[in-house]
UniProtKB/TrEMBL annotation:
The lineage of its organism: Bacteria, Pseudomonadati, Planctomycetota, Planctomycetia, Planctomycetales. Its EC number is 3.1.3.16. One of its GO terms (biological process) is RNA decapping. GO terms for cellular component: cytoplasm. The gene is pphA_1. InterPro entries: Ap4A_hydrolase, Calcineurin-like_PHP, Metallo-depent_PP-like. This is Serine/threonine-protein phosphatase 1. One of its GO terms (molecular function) is bis(5'-nucleosyl)-tetraphosphatase (symmetrical) activity.
């Protein structure tokens, strides 16, 4: 008898705001076990606040050799890049987590401690990523305009807050980060899902298979959550903060 091989469909897995928490990232990736045909979409803010930005970027670069990786630009990546040409922008970035990023590179006095390869990796981040069924963006969206028309403030800074956007005109589900869900649960409004579950602030780093709905979560110390809860439909975000 010939054994039948059942091919597993390729997955699209979104990962929320990492914020330099490389132990959480390592644990989530080990659980997801990305395959060559999978696509991993990182929703931005993979730097700052946590202590291991350098290690997290190394992990993401290595991951890109293993499967397809889509990196989105968050407000923290925007602040870092702006700081390269402005002293005032650098001072602002340092106040919002840049110090921890520089310390991960054994900071010795200047932003040039960050390797060119890492800066190029950050510069390569996209504003958004779109598939047949989903739109991925760091912060928020306009429901009555295509993604290419969304302003930078909406893409990277706007909170998923009142007034909440409605379903996107395309009918696609929007996947976002940025607005911390401090109870550690995915905010699921059906037409939009927020998976920033406050990893740095003692919550979880969340990975979401956007097709099957399977989730994986890990703490900043790299401990997997035993039974991540199914996303609960909610009428309102549980947190008004952004990281």
């Amino acid at each position: 008898m010939t054994a039948m091989v059942i091919e597993q469909p390729c997955r699209i897995v979104a990962i929320g705001d990492i914020h330099g928490c490389t132990h959480a990232l390592d644990a989530v990736l080990a659980a997801v076990d990305p395959q060559p045909d999978d696509t991993i979409v990182c929703l931005g803010d993979f730097i700052d606040q946590g202590r291991e930005t350098r290690e997290a970027i190394d992990t993401l670069i290595a991951l890109s050799q293993r499967c397809r990786v889509i990196m989105l630009k968050g407000n923290h990546e925007e602040m870092l890049l702006a700081s390269l040409g402005s002293e005032s922008a650098k001072n602002s970035w340092l106040m919002y987590g840049g110090v921890q990023t520089l310390n991960s590179y054994r900071f010795c006095g200047g932003i040039d401690v960050i390797p060119a390869a890492h800066l190029d990796f950050i510069r390569s981040c996209r504003d958004y990523y779109e598939t047949d069924d989903h739109i991925f963006v760091h912060a928020n969206y306009l429901d009555d305009a295509p993604p290419e028309e969304w302003p930078e403030y909406v893409l990277r800074w706007s909170l998923l807050d009142a007034p909440l956007p409605g379903p996107h005109m395309s009918g696609k589900t929007v996947i976002v980060g940025h607005t911390e869900q401090r109870d550690g649960e995915i905010l699921d409004l059906g037409y939009v899902k927020c998976i920033d579950t406050a990893c740095y602030n003692y919550g979880w780093l969340t990975a979401l298979d956007v097709t099957s709905g399977q989730t994986w979560q890990a703490s900043r110390w790299g401990v997997l959550r035993e039974s991540p809860k199914e996303p609960k439909p909610q009428r309102w975000p549980l947190a008004m903060g952004a990281d």
